[in-house]
Design brief:
The protein is of the alpha+beta class. Helix content is 41%, strand content 25%. The protein has 2 domains: 141 residues, Jelly Rolls, CATH 2.60.120.10; 72 residues, Winged helix-like DNA-binding domain superfamily/Winged helix DNA-binding domain (Arc Repressor Mutant, subunit A). The protein is built from 8 helices and 9 strands. Strands 1, 2, 3, 4, 5 and 6 form a 6-stranded antiparallel beta sheet that branches. Strand 3 and strand 4 form a beta hairpin. The relative contact order is 0.13.
Length: 222
């Protein structure tokens, strides 16, 4: 089940990079570890399309939206993980919708795999707790960016989540929709874009936005 590519991807994730892959292999079966392929814009994970599993992106990428599809929370790429927060409380508490960008392949590890690893490897259990703690901190910062601060800081937080590891992002919504998502006026949104452009942080042509100064973008939300 665990071919070399999947082992390589898992070993680079925050959750599995210190894991004993001999132990992982011993608890995996075809029933509790599955590869699932998704087409472009297909919903991978949501409260309505939920698997009681931890998902790992092994090919492609995805966008994470707040339930309802209005607010883009983050982007997932190869090696990123989802589903850890809801694994022990159920899908009705999963607050986001994850949508594929192009053809995407996900490795699902059932709850039984995670429980077995926790019981056999205390270090994995601690890594799982640390991972959840970092996610809580990340999400709290995202909430602060979207609900507080200046228009520039809200826009900076939004763009940082959109870029992910890329340098180019194409807006997938109108300025009216984006201003609504960030809870600022259209005029404030246009001024925020002008400010980021004049500071040399981004370049914008139509809906295409290029990241020029990542550290400058981060400084606006620090």
């Amino acid at each position: 089940m665990l071919n070399e590519k999947i082992i390589s991807i898992l070993s680079k994730t925050d959750l599995f990079q210190k894991a004993d892959f001999g132990a992982i292999s011993s608890v995996l079966t075809e029933n509790n570890a599955r590869l699932v392929s998704y087409k472009n814009t297909e919903t991978i994970f949501s409260s309505k399309k939920y698997k009681n599993s931890v998902g790992v992106i092994v090919k492609g990428s995805a966008k994470v939206f707040k339930s309802g599809g209005e607010v883009l929370v983050s982007r997932l790429s190869e090696g990123d993980i989802f589903g850890c927060q809801a694994l022990f409380i159920g899908g009705e508490f999963f607050p986001n919708e994850i949508v594929s960008c192009g053809e995407t392949v996900v490795l699902y590890l059932d709850k039984s795999v995670i429980v077995d690893l926790m019981e056999t490897d205390i270090n994995f259990a601690f890594d799982y707790i640390r991972y959840l703690s970092r996610r809580i901190h990340f999400l709290n910062r995202r909430i602060e960016n979207f609900t507080g601060g200046s228009a520039e800081s809200r826009l900076a937080g939004y763009l940082l989540s959109c870029f992910g590891g890329e340098r180019t992002y194409v807006l997938d919504r109108s300025m009216t929709q984006l201003s609504f998502s960030l809870d600022i006026s259209r005029a404030s949104l246009y001024r925020a874009f002008d400010s980021l452009i004049s500071c040399g942080i981004i370049e914008k042509e139509g809906k295409e936005i290029k990241l020029v100064d990542k550290e400058g973008l981060i400084s606006l939300i620090s």
